[in-house]
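Figure-free illustration: sequence to structure, shown twice.
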Amino acid sequence: MRTRLKTALLALLLAGTCAAHAGDDALYRALGDQAGVASLMTDFVTRLKRDTRTENFFRQTRVDGLAEALTDQVCVLAGGPCKYEGATMAKAHADLAIGRADFNALVEVLQDTMDERGIPFATQNRLLALLAPMHRDIVTR
């Protein structure tokens, strides 16, 4: 498990500068369009609430509310036609005292969720590469 996480994090660092080009919706389509992204994010948030490493951060969180915000955010990042109107990552996470281990656990839950859904490793890495820059706004301790 640790090797897989390290491999994914290395892939994120190497691909961190790769972003979806304007008009490129290939990742959005690979994730199953709006319905696929929404289903993935609902599953992901549900798992975060159950995982002993992350549950404390999500105890008071409504699955549907967070999943909807994440769906919009991932949709935009993946090149879809959505609009994200939520808080910035820095503002949303400022008072949560999230550490590196907490963040890594969240990434692992996302990877496991994508694995369970049969999302190919290359597609997972493309999404994780787009999410990786958020690390600096989320990890606050």
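We now fold a second protein in the same way, so the two outputs can be compared directly.
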Amino acid sequence: MTDARIVLTTLENAEQANLLARQLVEMRLAACVNLIPRVQSVYRWQGKVETAEEVLLVIKTTVERIPALKATLGQLHPYELPEFVVLHVTDGTDPYLAWLLAASQDAPA
């Protein structure tokens, strides 16, 4: 088990996704965010089955950044109920995981 985490969320369009991804990386809440466009989502919302084309964000971060990331997404995300799913990373290459941890840490004062 590592301290690395993957967080999933979706947004309505590429413009929103790019803006949020850039903010998260600039704030060092994420080392990297992959944007996967044109994800078809089928879900139940307020008693109806809905379909939407969305952009999936795959956010690479660390366990210690999760609380701040959750709070920030709660403030910046335009959805009433944004997806926020945290996946544990159980293994990876040592150099990549070291980079992820370093890139997600607060900048030195």
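Summary for the second example: The domain at 4-103 is CATH 3.30.70.120 (Alpha-Beta Plaits).
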